[in-house]
Amino acid sequence: MTTFNLPDLGEGLTEATLLSWLVDEGDTIEVDQPVAEVETAKSTLEVPSPYAGTVTQLHGAEGETMVVERPLISVDTGDAAAGPDAAAEPSAAQAPAAQPAGALDHREEERAGAAVPGDPDAAPAPETAGEGSGNVLIGYGTSGASGGRRRRRRRAAPPSAPSTTPSTTPATASPRERAPRVSSPLVRRLARDHAIPLSGLAGSGPDGLILRSDVLAAMETAGDRPATTAQQTSAASPAAAQAPRSAPAGLEVSDREPITGIRKAVATRLATSRREIPEATTWQDVDVTELLALRARLKEQAARTGEEAPSLLALIGRFVLAGLARHPELATRVDDREDGEQEIVHFDGVNLGFAAQTDTGLVVPVVRRAERLSARGLHQEVSRLVADARAGRLSGAELSGGTFTVNNYGVFGSDGATPIINHPEVAILGIGRILERPWAVDGELAVRSIATLTLTFDHRVCDGSTAGGFLNFVAACVEDPTSALANL
User: Fold this and answer.
1) Domain limits of the chain?
2) Which of 190, 192, 269, 418 has its CA 20 to 30 A from that of 451?
3) What is the mean pLDDT of the chain?
4) pLDDT reading at 136 higher than 50
């Protein structure tokens, strides 16, 4: 028997929430077959098995927090102990049956409303010869095109004692149905746990996409209320319930909400940032009147040519990248060496992160090698990442590896803020909302569009002169964008 541990999930992630098992004890599995679906602080993903054989034990219950390098499943590999390096071409007897034409994997069903087979004996989808599922985790996995992923296997019925009753003819398989389009597996599970039929919901997302808010609204209409993880754990295991703790005088505790998932990742990263980084903050008010005028001209030009005009965030991002080329200290990291000393690590290029608000919380998608993109190219990549973030389609790689972050908190109505550095980065630029204010122009008072730029930086990597020089450069580009873009 071989025990497979939850593999390294990358970027310092040490745990994941087990959303669902894709196999049962007693099932026969193949190399690279997905066995569990887990949610990390960054994304939802399937974990494929590096072994073939019979599942003897599932180490964990759905909803439980699983720890990296702790047991996930145990497999009886028999004589054919297949692992990640085994030459594993299935025999004719093991080869899966052909997938029905047009059938999609379970993620595509959720996102695109694909047909769901009604036949309970439907076979798993085949893989192209020589390809793996593409479910590659850090330090473990198989190669293959992303399109080679398997469909989720239906769980086999548990074995039962032989029956003396003659078997009846199986019922004819029900016709195919269209699966409702749902924004993420978590939303689908929420509906299932509270008996909300997705087929009866009218999604408020793009093209009828069912969002978490739609399920919550249906639950409220039905008089239901989602239980917290703590309540579910208590119901499942009464011994785990804790005695009530004290509350402020005169107040009763109405609920306790565990910090998990994305909220836990954000809390951990920001707490680490505050604890380890000696940060300092500098800010500057800038006149964005000319930048708004340039943006308006670009929109007019785009309307004539059919192209999409760069957003303000993309234009400012382009100026930020030019500033980082002049002050590369602000796009570095501080690493601990084995001898206990620290060193500043410089990079050839910039992975630009930007804060994006989603239904599940704040995430920071990363534009890789952003310095190679024009303002329009930067806008297209940011738009793609934002759309994928809000649809729950971002991979862990797209949420990691940043070297500098831009946070446009002005969209939430904030004039200014002191942003916390996205550890392990060393700086973050904040953009406040744009307001019309009286402003001195050529010795005369005028009404101009003004915003506040804020830079928080790690004082270990640079001093105020570097931070001030960077911020002043970006401000100068914003105030005279036409000249700045001509030189970029």
Assistant:
1) 1-164, 180-239, 263-486
2) 269
3) 77
4) no
Distance CA 273, CA 270 (A): 5
CA distance 146 to 104: 13
453 vs 10, residue with greater confidence:
453
Query: Which residues sit opposite 449 in a β-bridge?
Result: 436
- To the question of domain 1-164 being in CATH 3.40.1280.10, the answer is no
Q: pTM score, two decimals?
A: 0.56
For the chain, how big is the Rg over CA atoms in Å? 27
Supply φ then ψ for residue 393, to 5 degrees.
-100, 0
Report the C-alpha gap between 362 and 360 in whole angstroms.
7
- Does this chain's domain 180-239 share its CATH topology with 263-486? no
Q: What gap in Å lies between CA 461 and CA 470, rounded to an integer? A: 14
Per-residue confidence (pLDDT) for residue 39, from 0 to 100: 78
The contacts of residue 380 (CB under 8 Å, 6+ apart) are 308
CATH fourth-level superfamily of 180-239: E3-binding domain (4.10.320.10)
Q: What was the pLDDT predicted at 457?
A: 97
DSSP string, 257-273: ----HHHHHHHHHHHHH
Query: Which two structure tokens, joined as six digits, stand for 364?
Result: 């920071």
**3-class secondary-structure state, position 70:** coil
Report the range of poorest mean pLDDT among 131-140, 295-304, 372-381: 131-140
60 token code pair:
């964990």
Q: What positions carry a catalytic annotation?
A: 459, 463
Helix (H) or strand (E) holding 296: helix 289-305
CATH of domain 263-486: 3.30.559.10
- Give percent above pLDDT 70 in the chain: 72
